[in-house]
Design brief:
three-stranded mixed β-sheet; alpha+beta; single chain; 6 strands; 150 residues; globular
Length: 150
C-alpha cells in the first residue's frame, strides 16, 4: 500500500512540475514511500485515522490533524520549511519499514523560531534554509497534543 501511494504522490508532483529542496523535478518515489510508512506507523501509535494518505502532503494533514515527518535515520531531527504553516502540530517518525520510532511532536509556533533557524549545512550536508528542531525539543507526553479531537 505504501509503495502504491508513494508512487502516486511522486507522479502527481512530477506532473505538476514541483521541485524538491535541491531544485530537482524528480528524485524518485523512495522518499514518498518511506513517508507513507511513517504516517501509517504514527497512525497506529496515536490510534488515529491516517486522513491525508491519499492526498499530497501540501493538501491536508497526514494523520488526524497532525503533520507527520519521517526521517530515515533515528538521529535525524525534524525539519520545518519556511512555507510550513505554524498553526499545525508536527510529529517526527524515524526509521525505515517495517521499524519506526516515534520521536515526539511540536506545535509549529514553537518550532518556527529563530533558535531553530539554519542556513546552509545541516548534519554535514548542504540544505536549503529551514528550521531544524532537535529531539530534545519534541514532546512525547501523552502522545497526542491536548485539544485535538481524537
Amino acid at each position: 500500500m505504501a509503495r502504491a501511494i508513494g508512487n502516486a504522490r511522486q507522479d502527481r508532483r512530477d506532473a505538476a512540475g514541483n521541485r524538491n529542496a535541491k531544485g530537482n523535478t524528480s528524485r524518485g518515489a523512495a522518499d514518498h514511500i518511506v513517508g507513507v510508512m511513517g504516517e501509517l506507523a504514527f497512525a497506529k501509535v496515536a490510534n488515529r485515522y491516517p486522513s491525508g494518505l491519499f492526498l499530497d502532503k501540501d493538501e491536508d494533514d497526514d494523520v488526524g490533524g497532525i503533520q507527520v515527518r519521517t526521517r530515515r535515520k533515528h538521529y535525524m531531527d525534524l525539519y520545518l520549511w519556511k512555507t510550513d504553516p505554524t498553526d499545525a502540530f508536527y510529529a517526527l517518525m524515524t526509521g525505515e519499514g517495517p521499524r519506526f520510532n516515534f520521536q515526539g511532536f511540536i506545535h509549529g509556533s514553537k518550532a518556527a523560531v529563530p533558535e531553530y533557524w539554519t542556513k546552509g549545512k545541516v548534519g554535514g550536508f548542504p540544505r536549503v534554509d529551514c528550521f531544524v528542531i532537535p529531539h530534545s525539543a519534541l514532546s512525547k507526553l501523552g502522545i497526542l497534543p491536548v485539544g485535538l479531537p481524537s
